[in-house]
Amino acid sequence: MYPESTASSASGPIELTISDIAFGGDGVARLDGTVYFVPGTCLGERVRAVVSETRSSFRKARLLNVLEPSPDRLSTPDCLMRIDDGLRPLPAAVYAHLSYAEEIRCKNAQLLGFLTRQAGIADAADRLLPPVPSPKITRYRNKTTLHCAPRTRPGTGCSGKILGYVLEDNQTIFDVAACPLSVSAINAELASIREDLAFWRYIRPGDDLVLRWTRRNGAVVYVNRKNQPHQPAPPLLEDTPILGSIEVPMRGFFQTNPEIGADLVRTVSRHIETLTPSRFVDFYSGVGVFGLSMAKCGVPTVVGVDSGADVIRAANQNARKLGLSDRAAFQCADVAAAARETLSRYAGPGSCILVDPPRDGLAPRAPYARSRELRVLQALCSYPADSLIYVSCNPSTLARDLVFLKEGGYRLVSATLFDMFPRTAHFETVALLSHTK
Q1: What is the mean pLDDT of residues 192-204?
Q2: What's the rounded mean pLDDT across residues 158-184?
Q3: Does residue 365 register a pLDDT over 90?
Q4: Are 284 and 358 a contacting pair, CB within 8 Å?
Q5: CA distance 113 to 93
Q6: Which of 38, 119, 176, 242 could form a disulfide with 399 if both were Cys (CB 3.0 to 4.6 A apart)?
Q7: Mean pLDDT of the chain
Q8: Three-class SS string for 116-170?
Q9: Of 326, 388, 435, 418, which is closest to residue 128 (Cα–Cα)?
């Protein structure tokens, strides 16, 4: 489909044709049997690049210039930030050079690849539903974390310190005056903070400045200081599509893109309306958004499990305030430790299980190093439910876990991509599985 890549010289620039976009956002090219990954490129482009890193099975290359641009390349990248005297995209914004429609197409193709190749689902293309794009592609994040570091370059920061993001080397921190992915209220608060000399006297290198925004609370700020306990803080009020306003601990997790977070809840509720379970188990429940929403939708028995004491207190408090404590209860426990007992009581015919694990998925280590890492997956297969809803923020660990779940009798009914993090490499997936009796 695309012309061959060619070498200009043995050690100098090479010409490459981008034949794919890998998960993570790098363009993929092949030359003389070697795979090259080139950030900042588009599918079908012919580019000049120079090798920046050599590994045993691939090479990384730095883009020099685009010889034949894609029609999907933006004339000017968005998510630009000023570093020293120049502009460059935000480090995490790997798709800042692409049209948003092409970004969604790339991500959906990556999800299909994981389902087909890594998970081994032959008919995955028939199971993949249309992706759900974000209404906003910038200015959507409701939480921003900046790291404080000593000032190493003149003209940045204040009082010998800077606040910023970590660059691609995972070491260098550059000063951030405003983040193009954060909501405007967070950037306005950050601008005010940066002018406050008392703040600069208070914050220390190694501290993290966290800014959060909710529609009801506006922008709130706190500092995480290493090796010091967190000070008590009042809860925030977050809006949800089914429950209305709920309490969330200031340091507790909540989806960073509120519009897509609401779409996730609506999608799960539509699944529940079709499945009509009598019992709903919510693993990694957080403050109970999914579990409480399903109780509000009419599920008679909802049980949630999460290891965070603060979010479980908030979940049970929300249940009481919403008048749902007679049908929804949440337990503070390690999911791996509690999975077997919980499912032995609540799984089986008439039940639905939802799992919303962190990026490591249901087995924190891969390959599965010890039996502990398998406990959630083993419990799901030993005590199966009629349906399992897997909400994933990492398609790689989702695909890995689907292999185990398939062997345990589950089959994929549908999968949908939700673009929770536009311009970045990441996205969420909602996978619906049924168990074959």
Answers
A1: 95
A2: 86
A3: no
A4: yes
A5: 22
A6: 119
A7: 93
A8: HHHCCCCCHHHHECCCECCCCCCCCECEEEEEEEECCCCCCCECCEEEEEECCCC
A9: 418
Paired residues of 430 in beta bridges: 391, 416
pLDDT above 50 for 427: yes
Buried b (16+ CB within 10 A) or exposed e, 233-261: eebbebebbbbebbbbbbebbbbbbbebb
Cβ neighbors of 226 (< 8 A, separation 6 or more) are 206, 207
Contact 395, 23 (CB under 8 A): yes
Give the model's pLDDT for residue 9: 44
CA distance 431 to 127: 9
Give the pLDDT of residue 226. Answer: 84
**Omega of the bond prior to 367 within 30 degrees of 0, cis?**
yes
Which of 106, 148, 179, 393 is labelled catalytic?
A: 393
What single letter denotes the amino acid at residue 90?
Answer: L
Q: Does residue 393 carry a catalytic annotation?
A: yes
For residue 387, give both structure tokens: 């349906």
409 in the Ramachandran plot: left (φ > 0), alpha (ψ -120 to 50) or beta?
left
Contact in structure between 242 and 252 (CB atoms under 8 Å) = no
Sign of CA dihedral 353, 358, 360, 363: negative
Pair type for strands 236-240 and 218-224: unpaired
Q: According to the model, what pLDDT value does residue 8 have? A: 47
| Residue in this structure with the two tokens 């906003």, named with its chain if needed | 136
pLDDT of 321: 97
Q: HEC states along the chain? A: CCCCCEECCCCCCEEEECCEECCCCCEEEEECCEEEEECCCCCCCEEEEEEEEECCCEEEEEEEEEEECCCCECCCCCCEEEECCEEEECCCCCCCCECHHHHHHHHHHHHHHHHHHHCCCCCHHHHECCCECCCCCCCCECEEEEEEEECCCCCCCECCEEEEEECCCCCCEEECCCCCCECHHHHHHHHHHHCCHHHHHHCCCCCEEEEEEECCCEEEEEEECCCCCCCCCCCEEEEECCCEEEEECCCCCCCCCHHHHHHHHHHHHHHHHHHCCCEEEEECCCCCHHHHHHHHCCCCEEEEEECCHHHHHHHHHHHHHCCCCCCEEEEECCHHHHHHHHHHHHCEEEEEEEECCCCCCCCCCCCCCCHHHHHHHHHHHHCCEEEEEEEECCHHHHHHHHHHHHHCCEEEEEEEEECCCCCCCCCEEEEEEEECC
